[in-house]
Amino acid sequence: MKVKVFTAGNIQDAMAQVKHDLGRDAVILHTRRFRKGGFLGFFGKETVEVMAALDTPPPVPPPERKAAAHTVAAPRGDEDAKVTAMQLEMATMRKMVEQVLAKLPRQEKHQSPLYDLLVRNDIDAAIAENLVQGLPEDGPLTGNNPAFVRQLLIERMTNYLQRVEGIVPPESGCKVVAFIGPTGVGKTTTIAKLAADFTFSQGMKVAVVTADTYRISAVEQLKTYADIIDVPLEIVYTPDEMKAALFRHRDKRLVFIDTAGRSPRNQYQLAELQALLAVDPYIETNLVLSATTKYADALDAVNRFSVCSPQKFLFTKLDEATNLGTVFNLLYQFPTTLSYVTTGQNVPDDIELANPVKLANMILRD
Ligand SMILES: Nc1nc2c(ncn2[C@@H]2O[C@H](COP(=O)(O)OP(=O)(O)OP(=O)(O)O)[C@@H](O)[C@H]2O)c(=O)[nH]1
Ligand SMILES: [Mg+2]
Q1: Which atom of ligand 1 is nearest to the CA of 221?
Q2: CA angle 57-59-65, nearest 5°?
Q3: How remote is the CA of residue 136 from the centroid of ligand 2, in Å?
Q4: Helix count and strand count (H, E) for the chain
Q5: 2-71: CATH topology
Q6: Which of 179, 189, 287, 319 to mutate to test the pocket of ligand 1 (most atoms within 8 A of CB)?
Q7: Which of 8, 72, 124, 366 sits most deeply, having the most CB atoms within 10 A of its CB?
Q8: Ligand 1: residue whose CA is nearest its atom 13
Q9: Taking CB atoms and a 6 Å cutoff, what residues make up the pocket around ligand 1?
Q10: How many angstroms separate the alpha carbon of residue 173 from the centre of ligand 2?
Q11: Which of 262, 345, 346, 347 for a ligand 1 pocket mutation test, highest count of atoms within 8 Å of Cβ?
Q12: For 14-59, what is each residue's pLDDT tens digit?
């Protein structure tokens, strides 16, 4: 790994040097502002120091992005590694037990086609069991109408998806909405979609703040969107800078905060994220999760990101998911408000307010 320290009069110049010397995929390890020269630190020239590293020669393909993120993580001790290995082992065992259990009671107790359909759609076996419990069997009582029983099940499922609220800008003043979540789930793309929608369709004043400063290309990705949508973009490195940026944009109706993708297993990164968002207790935090994520992994992410107290879930990549089992299982386990779902890569079109009935029907796909 190549590590270099750059100094300049301001952050933009320092980042330009990083980009020039190490390329777009450089990882920012550390930044510091100080006064150089002067007397006892007074009257000196404001100087910015950036320590950056390049993990692999550019261009870096997606899998190495994870490696880059690890370079800034706190060193993991043996204990950490053991805990992770144990958790993985437990998750694998849990999955195996679930698979066995899913087969057993189904034969003996239910033989219900709807139970089978739920499990085929990756609804957790225990949850599927609860959902079909007490549902009438299709027969003379229900008019020999399987669609009717299915409709009863959809209604039950809809109950768990009822809490829906998008971003509601205040009548006056400014609302700040942050997006957090694991790496690559679609946080930045989702912000671009929302910023475009609120700016163009609803004519609101919007600003975007990014705290994703680990890779130069991450800032550039959002800058490109911000330029096209014509909204201001602020880049912040510390909680104080976050506070200052939010204060500068208090005249906007909405401020969206983009954050670096975090490995849910890295507690140091999560604590850093928590500190950034703690500058304002009124920030509405959306936990962004991909519908393509395995349930066990999504569950782990929800548990670990809970240190940032997200108020809402936002699910991405519904278009790529073979089923929406993870979405339902999570909302069943954690009755949380759902904001939006995204259905593709197109900015700004592929996003919609979550619709409980539509989702329940999608979850129960044949
Ligand atoms: N198919 C599909 N792809 C999506 C969707 N949303 C985002 N993507 C794609 O997912 C990839 C990652 O998106 P980003 O917005 O960069 O994800 P991120 O969470 O900001 O990633 P990091 O900042 O690296 O953590 C990009 O290729 C996006 O185009 C979606 O709803 N469907
Ligand atoms: Mg991003």
Answers
A1: 16
A2: 85
A3: 47
A4: 13, 11
A5: Dodecin subunit-like (3.30.1660)
A6: 189
A7: 124
A8: 186
A9: 183-189, 212, 218, 260-261, 316-317, 319-320, 342-345, 350
A10: 27
A11: 345
A12: 888 888 898 887 877 767 777 766 655 456 677 888 878 887 654 4
User: What distance in Å separates the CA atoms of residue 349 and residue 366, rounded to the nearest whole number?
Assistant: 27
* Closest CA to ligand 1's atom 6: 186
Ligand 1 atom at minimum distance from 185 CA? 19
According to DSSP, the β-strands at 27-36 and 206-210 are: unpaired
Distance 71 CA to ligand 2 centre (A): 17
**192 CA → ligand 1 middle, Å:** 11
- Alpha-carbon span 163 to 309, nearest angstrom: 17
> Phi/psi of residue 4, each to 5°?
-140, 150
Q: Which atom of ligand 1 is nearest to the CA of 344?
A: 32
d(CA 218, CA 151): 45
Task: Tell me the per-residue pLDDT of 100-112, one tens digit each, with 9 for 90 and over.
Answer: 555 555 444 546 8
What is the atom index within ligand 1 of the atom nearest the CA of 262?
25
Amino acid at 166: G
- The pLDDT assigned to 94 comes to 59
For 351, phi and psi rounded to 5 degrees?
-150, 145
- Identify the CATH assignment for 175-363 out of 3.30.200.20, 3.40.50.1970, 3.40.50.300, 3.50.50.60: 3.40.50.300
- Structure tokens given for 272: 């850093």
- 121 contacts: CB under 8 Å, gap ≥ 6: 323, 324, 325, 363, 364, 365
Tokens at 244, concatenated: 């200052």
Residue 40: exposure state from Cβ atoms within 10 A (0-12, 13-18, ≥19):
exposed
Q: Which atom of ligand 1 is nearest to the CA of 182?
A: 25
**Residue 279 gets which letter from DSSP?**
T
Residue extents of the structural domains in the chain: 2-71, 78-159, 175-363
pLDDT (tens digit per residue) in 118-165: 999 999 999 999 999 888 776 666 666 778 889 999 999 999 999 999
